[in-house]
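[recover] target loaded
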C-alpha cells in the first residue's frame, strides 16, 4: 500500500565484476596534462598486472596521445580535448561535453576507471558506455560511482595535512580498490564449521534481522513483508536467527507464515555457529543489506 516500506537490496560491485569474467575490457580515463599522465603510469602498470588478459585502453588529451602510445601499455588510445593544453583554471564538464564525448562513438567497455583525482571531468564518464565506473569521490559533488575512494587532493587544499601520500600512490590505491572488489568472495577468512541442530538449510532463506546499532535496522513491517514475499513467490522456507531479544520480531513473522514454512532459531545459533549455518542456506539477508526506501 501507499507508504509501505520497500526493500532495496544492495548489489555488490564484486558480484558485477565477477560476472564480467576473467578478461573484462578496461578504459583508463586520464584527460589532464602530461605530468599528471606520467604520475598515473604506476597505477596503469598495476592495472595491467591485475588484469593480464584484459584489453586496457586509454582516453586522454590529444597532446598526450603519442606519448601514451609509446608506453606500449594500451591496446588502443583515444583522445578528447577537455582541459586544453594550457588551461590553468579547470572547468566542470556539462551536458554539452557529455554529448560531444558520446558523439565520438567510443566502443563500450566493461570497466572505466578515471584516474583524475579531482572531479571536474567526472561527469564525462556518463558519456561512455560501461558496466562499472571507478574513480575518486568528493562528498560535496556526488557521482554514482560503483567503486570510489575519497578525493584527497581537494581535502588537502581545504586544510593542509602535515603528511600525504604521493599522487601516484593514491592512483595505485584506487586500482587496488578495484582489484580487491573483483577478488572478494564474501568472506575474509575460513571458519571451522561445526554441526548444528538446524541441519540442512539448502531450501531456506536466512533472515538475520538483529543489529547492535539501531541506525542499521530495518522496519518490522519490512521484515514481515519480506518473509511473506519469500514464501509466496518461491518454494524456499524462511529461517529466522538472532539473539534472544529478537524473539518478538520472529513471532511477528511467524504470525503471517504457514507453520511449516518457518524455522525459528532465535537464541539457538551462537556466533561460532553462523558460518556453518549460513553456508548451507540458499540465501541470507541481514540489516546491513536492506534499508527502508520511500
Amino acid at each position: 500500500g501507499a507508504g509501505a516500506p520497500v526493500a532495496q537490496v544492495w548489489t555488490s560491485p564484486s558480484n558485477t565484476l565477477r560476472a564480467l569474467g576473467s578478461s573484462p575490457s578496461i578504459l583508463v580515463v586520464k584527460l589532464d596534462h602530461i605530468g599528471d599522465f606520467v604520475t598515473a603510469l604506476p597505477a596503469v602498470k598495476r592495472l595491467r598486472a591485475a588484469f593480464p588478459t584484459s584489453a586496457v585502453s586509454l582516453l586522454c588529451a590529444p597532446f598526450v596521445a603519442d606519448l601514451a602510445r609509446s608506453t606500449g601499455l594500451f591496446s588502443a588510445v583515444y583522445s578528447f580535448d577537455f582541459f586544453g593544453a594550457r588551461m590553468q583554471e579547470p572547468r566542470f564538464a556539462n551536458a554539452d561535453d557529455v554529448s560531444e564525448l558520446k558523439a565520438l562513438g567510443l566502443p563500450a567497455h566493461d570497466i572505466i576507471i578515471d584516474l583524475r583525482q579531482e572531479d571536474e571531468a567526472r561527469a564525462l564518464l556518463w558519456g561512455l558506455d560501461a558496466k562499472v565506473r571507478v574513480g575518486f569521490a568528493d562528498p560535496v559533488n556526488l557521482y554514482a560511482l560503483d567503486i570510489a575512494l575519497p578525493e584527497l587532493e581537494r581535502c588537502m587544499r581545504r586544510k593542509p595535512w602535515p603528511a600525504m601520500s604521493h599522487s601516484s600512490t593514491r592512483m595505485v590505491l584506487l586500482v587496488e580498490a578495484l582489484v580487491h572488489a573483483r577478488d572478494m568472495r564474501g568472506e575474509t577468512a575460513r571458519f571451522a564449521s561445526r554441526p548444528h541442530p538446524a541441519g540442512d538449510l539448502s531450501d531456506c532463506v536466512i533472515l538475520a534481522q538483529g543489529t547492535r546499532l539501531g541506525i542499521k535496522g530495518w522496519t518490522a513491517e519490512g521484515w514481515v513483508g519480506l518473509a511473506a514475499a519469500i514464501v509466496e513467490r518461491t518454494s524456499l522456507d524462511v529461517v529466522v536467527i538472532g539473539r534472544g531479544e529478537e524473539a518478538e520480531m520472529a513471532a511477528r513473522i511467524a504470525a503471517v507464515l504457514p507453520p511449516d514454512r518457518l524455522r525459528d532459531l532465535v537464541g539457538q545459533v551462537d556466533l561460532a555457529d553462523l558460518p556453518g549455518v549460513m553456508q548451507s542456506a540458499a540465501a541470507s539477508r541481514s540489516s546491513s543489506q536492506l534499508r527502508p526506501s520511500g
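[recover] notes: The first strand starts at residue 8 and ends at 9.
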